[in-house]
Write the structure tokens for this entry.
Amino acid sequence: MIVRHSIGILFSATGSYGTVGRTMLNGSLMACSQVSDDPYSPVLLDPLVIDPCCELSAYATGVETMFDRGIRHVVGCYTSSSRKEVIPIFEKRDALLWYPTHYEGFESSANVVYTGTAPNHHLSPLVDYVVSRFGSRAFCVGSNYIWGWESNRVLREDITQRGGTVLAERYLALGDTDFCSIIDAILDVEPDFIFNALVGRSAYAFFRQFRAACTARGIDQKSRYPIASCNLSEPELSEIGPDAVDGHLSSSVYFSSIDTSTNRAFVAGYNRMFPEGPAVSAEAEAAYIATKFLAAALVEAGTDELQSVKAAVRNKAFDAPQGRVTIDPETMHAYLTPRIGRSRRDGQFDILVEAEQPVRPDPYLVRASPSLEAVALRPNLRVV
């Protein structure tokens, strides 16, 4: 017997970070389509899509609407502020959020399954990489909310333990695009690298303005002031534009240039289903993974009851486009494969280093921060 399950999909497809939101929406819808079109699948996924338009208050309204319609599982949220906004509602209504993106860690909710990266998947490897190659003097710039604050805090603590220093931290409100004073401050203190925790339109404007400022001064920004991010993906490169798109570092677990048959099939299927884009990304893959895990757990549990579904997804594994992904039963976060890429003018990333195997999630960084060798990162022969 085939059972139909209504699920919620809650991403901002419009607004200041709508480009990322659309790619996440696409990833989840692609998984829904594959599950429902599979003739051997005992479940059909019936998604209810709500777009909060990057308005924080609209997330709570959206999930309440879903719950009032009997939905108990929601794949959604991009920003940490939106996740924090809705978690109390999930706890009150005995529902489960499947959160599919990188985040700052230091959280564990009984009502969340995390399929995006924990800080030991993106921040720790990135610090290893940039300090060993560029130096230990950082300038941090971020959006003025929890993602920027906490990412910079973790980086500051990590780099200080290595004998380095954060020269300054600067924050702008989500969507703000005036970086004149921040760029002047960067050029004044001359850091070894810039850590970027800006989101959406703010990030795109910063890349363009900083490249232009360096060019006007005869500075090769890519080599003199490399910009390193944990939240830069392919669809955002097109938003930056051709004059400033190349040479930026991104720490992630997925790039669409991963050269495996599984990933090539995933990218081809995504492009067929969404020819208008945005381009496939780490966020799209994480939303795809979350929806696939949700479907598998619903099948095994035989119900949408929260505890039964959580029990079913513990230790469950999936051969994802990035490689093997497993849900850690202790933290309800995912084992993922860290990678560091460098952006190209064609809107893709060269993969510089990658882990040899999936890394256990450590959302509270209670274990020793892994070095490049400890997480089995190795040179990738596709380096340009």
Observations:
- The mean pLDDT is 94.
- The CA atoms of residues 297 and 313 lie 5 Å apart.
- The chain has two domains: 3-116+258-335, 120-257+338-379.
